[in-house]
Specification:
One of its GO terms (cellular component) is membrane. This protein has about 180 residues and is mainly alpha-helical. The protein has helices at about 1-5, 15-40, 45-75, 85, 90-120, 125-150, 150-175, 175-185. The protein has one domain: Membrane associated eicosanoid/glutathione metabolism-like domain (Four Helix Bundle (Hemerythrin (Met), subunit A)), CATH 1.20.120. The model is unreliable at about 10-15 (pLDDT under 50).
């Protein structure tokens, strides 16, 4: 699936600043407009979900800036413009690049969950959805730290926890029985 997203241009292979901003600005416009609509509607629990989405975009953007700065500033003798991919093919810089791509790809799942939960879920489910959105936000914040630090078990655990939270958002939206099961436990 990740190769499909990369084939249609939903990754930042090479850390190109122009490509990053071409993706970031329209996505931020959509997220900010959604948050403004929520402010008008004054639904506090939806604010949490959309803030989590906004937060993930900011994390992704900051990771990209860190990646570009690390690529250009850490190489003795400067950035190898003739072979940029060979320079980023190993080590911590490669893991930074991979964490950027994975963060962006996981945001696609989260965006779909937010849209579906916004349209399908009833008011009783909004509190559960908001708590899982916060869990996604927290796990996706520590995920790049584990990825860059090459702590594979914790990286896989944080990834699984964030994806499980996204799946729970779907389950709560579509199955009211799941809401009562979760609230009773």
């Amino acid at each position: 699936m990740s190769s499909f997203f990369r084939s249609i241009g939903l990754s930042l292979d090479g850390g190109d600043f122009k490509a990053m901003n071409l993706k970031f600005v329209p996505l931020m416009f959509v997220v900010i407009s959604t948050v403004l609509v929520d402010v008008v509607r004054s639904n506090v629990t939806e604010h949490v979900v959309h803030f989590a989405l906004f937060y993930l975009f900011v994390i992704w953007y900051l990771l990209n800036w860190g990646y570009m700065l690390s690529v250009t500033l850490t190489k003795p003798g400067g950035y190898p413009n003739s072979a940029p991919r060979a320079y980023t093919a190993e080590g911590a810089i490669y893991r930074v690049k991979c964490s950027i791509e994975n963060t962006f790809e996981s945001m696609v799942c989260f965006i779909i969950a937010v849209i579906i939960c916004d349209k399908v879920a009833d008011d009783n489910a909004q509190e559960l959805i908001a708590s899982w959105a916060v869990l996604v936000m927290l796990t996706r914040t520590i995920y790049p730290v584990f990825y860059i630090g090459d702590i594979d078990f914790l990286r896989a655990f944080s990834f699984a926890l964030s994806m499980m939270s996204i799946h729970f958002m779907f389950l709560v939206s579509f199955f009211p029985e799941f809401q009562s099961f979760v609230k009773s436990t």
